[in-house]
Amino acid sequence: CHGENGDKSYRGAPNLQQTSLPAETIQLLVYDGVKGTMPMPSYSFLSEEDIADVALYVSNMKNMTAMPAAE
């Protein structure tokens, strides 16, 4: 929903490159989702440490430039 670079906004998903949420809040959103929206599809397969890493990555997306598309 967010796309490879976090900026796809499919079906109203927020642009993750513009988030100001701290990693701790993002981590809770991965676990609990946002009421009325689709949960992260594979969160149940990730360890607690993996989810913390994803949350930290997302919270730092605003500091990144666009990544090249995967081949």
Descriptive key words:
mainly alpha, single chain, 71 residues
Uncertain segments are: none
Measured as a percent range, the helix fraction is 25-40%
Order of helices and strands: HH
Average pLDDT for all residues: 80
SS class: mainly alpha
- The number of helical segments is 2
Structure, explained:
By secondary structure, this protein is mostly helical. It has two helices and no strands. α1 packs across α2. The longest helix has 12 residues.
Give me the secondary-structure topology.
Blueprint: H1 23-32, H2 48-59
Helix pairs in contact: 1-2
A few lines on this structure:
The chain has 71 residues and is an all-alpha fold. Helices cover 31% and strands 0% of the residues.
